[in-house]
Amino acid sequence: MADIRLLSPADAPALQAFLTAHVAQTMLLRGNLLRTGIVDGTQPYQGRYAAAFEQDRIVGVAAFYWNGNLILHAPRHVAAVARAAAGDRRVNGILGPWQQSLDAQDALDLGSHHLKLRSREILMSLTLDGLQQPEPLPTQKLSWRVATSDDIDLLCGWRDSMMQETLGGTPSQAASRESRGDVERWIAEGNQFLLLDDGRPVSGCSFNARLPDAVQLGNVWTPPEWRSRRYARAVVARALEHARKAGAVTAVLFTDRENAAAQTAYVALGFTVVGDYAILLFAD
C-alpha cells in the first residue's frame, strides 16, 4: 500500500533524491523546486506537490504549479498523485512521460473534448562532453551572447510567434503578457541566448530548467526568413557549451515528433532519444 500525501518543505530531501534518479524526465520539476522550494503559492515556479510513498520512499510525484500546469513523474500511483496535487483547481495543461500523462488526464476526468493540444514529443538527452559543435557556413559571421533587457521586445515577438506556430496559440493580450513574463524571467536568470549573423539577431534559445548538473533546452526559435541556414543548431550548441563550462554534464530537451528538421539538428549535435513526453493543453 502506498501513502499518498501533499509534501511540505521537510520532504524536500526525499523529493530531490527521487527526481535526481530520473534526470531526463524530471528537469522541469527539479528546476522549479530549486527556484522556490516546496511552496504552494501563486508566484512563478511555486506549486503544490503530492507524492506516493512506499516504505518511506517516494515512488511517484506530481506538482500543480502557479500557471495551472500539472507536471509529473509517477511510474507508480500516477492517478492518485495527480488527483492529490490538482485538488479542485482547474488544470490548464499536463506535462510528463506520455503514458503517465494520459493516465493523469483520465484520473482528472479531462476528456478529449477539453483538449486544444495533444502532442507526443520525443525526449532527447546529451552528455555534454559529447557535444558536437557545428561549423558555420562560409557566408556566416556568427556571434553569440546572453540576452539582456534591451532584447526583451524582440524576444517577446519571437516567443509569441513560436507559441502560435508550435502550440497552436491564439494572438491575444493575455498570451503576450505570458510571453513577456517568460522572457523577462529567462533574461533575469541569465538563461536566454541569442545568435547574431553579422550583428543581426537571427535565432535564440533558452534554458527553461537549469541545475548545477544539467540543463533543459527550450524556446528554440528562428524566424521563418532566417531558416535553413543552421542557425538553430548554432545557437543551441553555443548555449550548451556555455552550460558545460559552468559545470553542467547533461542536457535534455523534448521536441515535436513531426519536426524532422529539429530532430536532425539535435542528432547532429549528439543528442539521442531516451523516451517520449506529453504536452497536453486544455481549453478554458
Automatic annotation (TrEMBL):
<keyword id="KW-0808">Transferase</keyword>
<dbReference type="InterPro" id="IPR016181">
    <property type="entry name" value="Acyl_CoA_acyltransferase"/>
</dbReference>
<dbReference type="InterPro" id="IPR000182">
    <property type="entry name" value="GNAT_dom"/>
</dbReference>
<dbReference type="Pfam" id="PF00583">
    <property type="entry name" value="Acetyltransf_1"/>
</dbReference>
<protein>
    <submittedName>
        <fullName>GNAT family N-acetyltransferase</fullName>
    </submittedName>
</protein>
<feature type="domain" description="N-acetyltransferase">
    <location>
        <begin position="142"/>
        <end position="284"/>
    </location>
</feature>
<dbReference type="InterPro" id="IPR050832">
    <property type="entry name" value="Bact_Acetyltransf"/>
</dbReference>
<dbReference type="GO" id="GO:0016747">
    <property type="term" value="F:acyltransferase activity, transferring groups other than amino-acyl groups"/>
</dbReference>
<keyword id="KW-0012">Acyltransferase</keyword>
